[in-house]
Amino acid sequence: MRLKGPALRLTVYVEEDASWHHKPLYHEIVHRARQAGLAGASVIRGIEGYGASSELHTSRILSLSEDLPLAIVIVDTPERIRAFLPQLDELVTEGLVMVDEVEVIRYAGRAAGGAGDSRPVDTGGRDS
């Protein structure tokens, strides 16, 4: 897939313990983005934050929070991002969904398995 120039960045903020049919919500969003053929998705864990409820979530040892903020970031063409948004209406019942304009300067991946390679990527144990 070629992606360069004007694009949209879709960012979805949810709590780490948010789920969809007994699975992590972030996993479902990434899975659906991949099924939709979007260019890529990343899940980023925050160390502290709060949202609409104003409840503070933190990774500080004393609080032992397992409910940290997550950001799922997806970048693709405006048409593909806008076509994906209705799926988020179904999935995200609490959180924040944002879309902003970006410019893609470079989008390149490894040629490990070629197109359609569905082998899992070793994340070094970081994909809990």
UniProtKB/TrEMBL annotation:
Family membership noted in the UniProt record: Belongs to the UPF0166 family.
InterPro entries per the UniProt record, alphabetical: N-reg_PII-like_a/b, N-reg_PII/ATP_PRibTrfase_C, UPF0166
Highest taxon of source: Bacteria
Taxon lineage: Bacteria, Bacillati, Actinomycetota, Actinomycetes, Streptosporangiales
Coiled-coil region: none
Pfam families referenced in this protein's UniProt entry, alphabetically: DUF190 (PF02641)
Parts of the chain that traverse the membrane: none
Name of the protein in its database record: PII-like signaling protein
